[in-house]
Amino acid sequence: MARRMILAMLWSWLWLPSAPASEPQVVLPDGLKWASPPWDPLVHAAWVLGAEQASGPYLLRVRIAPGGNIPPHTHPDERYTTVLSGTLQVSFGPDFESARTLVLPAGAVYVAPANQPHFVRPAGGEVIYQEAGTGPTATLFMNP
């Protein structure tokens, strides 16, 4: 459990400071700072707006190559996820055997309730999705 928490903290250090709310802000795709978590180089994430430990709204963009996955985890906040391209397989449950799985095409949106165990992977080719929520937040991985 401690190892998973440390990995989650390392991955959470990907952040882009927010501009003051009173100023318009534009974030272009080529300005995103992508990084991979230590457990899977096929997963890349970039904070579009906000940061994991900051108060207020955030957007996190995630890109998963074929064969990559994000293992079972929870978040303390409700998250709204939009599939931007590809097809996403999201499974709700603590493990692969008991999970309820949905296959979502580009344009689909799902809501992950706070503290609901889930995991994701591409269904076929590369998938890109974007998560929105209100921080501070965290990613807490389940025991292996």
Q: Return the domain count.
A: 1
In CATH, the topology is named Jelly Rolls
What is the name of the CATH architecture? Sandwich
The count of strands amounts to: 10
CATH class category label: Mainly Beta
Distance between the termini: 8 Å
Give keywords.
5-stranded antiparallel β-sheet, globular, 144 residues, mainly beta
Summary, kept brief:
With 144 residues, the chain is mainly beta. It has a single domain (2-17, 30-141), classed as Sandwich (Jelly Rolls), CATH 2.60.120.10. It contains 1 helix and 10 strands, in the order αββββββββββ.
What does this structure look like?
By secondary structure, this protein is mainly β. Strands 1-2-9-4-7 form a 5-stranded antiparallel beta sheet, with no helix packed on it. Strands 6-5-8-3-10 form a 5-stranded antiparallel beta sheet. Helix content is 8%, strand content 42%.
Furnish the topology, listing elements before pairings.
Layout: H1 2-12, E1 43-49, E2 56-64, E3 70-74, E4 79-85, E5 87-92, E6 100-105, E7 109-112, E8 118-122, E9 127-135, E10 140-141
Antiparallel strand pairs: 1-2, 2-9, 3-8, 3-10, 4-7, 4-9, 5-6, 5-8
